Amino acid sequence: MGQLRKRGGVWWIRYYRNGRRYEESAKTDKKGKAETLLRLREGDIAKGLPITPALARVTFDEAAQTVLDDYRQNGRKSLAHVAWRLTKYLTPFFGGRRLTTITTPLVRTYISQRLDAGAAPASVNRELALLKRTFTLAVRDGRVLMRPHIPMLAEANARTGFFEKAAFEAVHDALPAYLQPVATFAYLTGWRVPSEILTLQWSQVDLTAGIVRLEPGSTKSGEGRVFPFAAHPDLTTLLETLDTARGARQKATGAIVPWVFHRHGKPIKSAKKAWATACETAGCPGRLWHDFRRTAVRNLVRAGVPEKTAMLLTGHKTRSVFDRYDIVNEADLRAAVAKLAERPLDTRGDRKGTVRPIRGARRSTRSAVSA
What is the rounded CA–CA span in Å between residue 81 and residue 87? Predict the structure, then answer.
């Protein structure tokens, strides 16, 4: 049974767990506030939550700052986006709360409010994943003992944007000349246009070995990647043509351009407007650069490349991408149907095409008629 006592005008609370006594200042001269704190501590004990003062005082804001520090220390490119989600959505709801008071019902309340505000389930799930990360780091650091169950929403997010060859060629021809090589490279490799292709430099391309490389830390997953282009004539021609143009520019101007893809020797900052205009002109409004990524994965799978190898080439980290992209390995399906066609029908005992009753069916039918 908890107890209250006053020392020097400040109330203190006393409570017990597993036979051990704890005392904590309520930091108030109001008895009612001290009683409320005591009930909170006793409630935490009943739920098996940490009740030592140091653990109980950890707030969401402090734990969220740890997440930001972790992203910053590991050089994660998504730091700015994570900070935005915390500031705009999670902190306004969970800010100021002790981690030990963030329960599953409270998380469900947050989910309901976000959905009522018009947020898509996928967006809410990204926020919930960030909340999970907040608790994971707090548990790892010993700041709390457990993480509450954080439910996730079902996402109907199968991707359907693909480029057939004719559509790709139409958009390619409608793009400005400086973006046409970008589109070709994206169509063939499936690499991300803004973060991986537009930032690509010649120091990452080995024309002799026929390899283009992304260094660890430069990709969304943080892992490096290699694309051996020597075996692909179109990709080889593209890079060799760009290299020849680079040499000619350097000879004429004396300027060294480090970027593989550029606009008059300057890095391409954004291609959104030119891309949207080209898609409108080609009769493909609303298409995305990211559609090339889905297209490349599908083309690899259609060509019979094992999915694990296709993921290594395009930089997809988990198998779930094939489910989200709604990619079907048509070759596997055709092979399965062919095997079915090779198997003869089982016509034992039914060579004349007569219908044989299921064993026991005649008895059951008679019983039913008698009844």
Answer: 10
CB 232 within 8 A of CB 188: yes
Nearby residues of 230 by Cβ (< 8 Å), 6 or more positions away: 209, 210, 211, 236
Quote the longest CA-to-CA distance of the chain: 103
Whose structure tokens read 């804001």? 61
Distance between CA 49 and CA 47 in Å, rounded? Answer: 5
User: For residue 39, which amino acid is it?
Assistant: R
Q: What is the pLDDT of residues 199-257, one digit of tens each?
A: 999 999 999 999 999 887 666 666 788 999 998 999 999 999 999 999 999 999 998 99
Distance from C-alpha of 69 to C-alpha of 51, rounded to nearest angstrom: 26
- Report the DSSP pairing between strands 20-25 and 10-17: antiparallel
Distance between CA atoms of residues 42 and 49, nearest Å: 10
Q: How many residues does the chain have?
A: 371
Residue 262: phi, psi to the nearest 5?
-150, 175
| Residue 256 burial class via C-beta count within 10 angstroms: exposed 0-12, middle 13-18, buried 19 and up | exposed
Q: Give the DSSP H or E segment for 205.
A: strand 205-206
Alpha-helical (H) ranges within 95-156 are: 104-116, 121-140
What are the backbone dihedrals phi and psi of residue 14, each rounded to the nearest 5 degrees, phi first? -130, 130
Is the separation of the CB atoms in 177 and 196 below 8 Å?
Answer: no
8-state DSSP, 347: -
Helices then strands, each counted (H, E), the chain: 16, 8
pTM for the model stands at 0.59
Token match 């760009």: residue?
Answer: 242
Kindly list the distances between the CA atom of residue 223 and the CA atoms of 100, 261, 292, in Å, as whole numbers in the listed order: 35, 22, 21
Q: Give CA separation, 205 vs 90, 229, 258, 359, in Å.
A: 42, 10, 11, 71
Q: Which residue has the tokens 């046409």?
A: 180
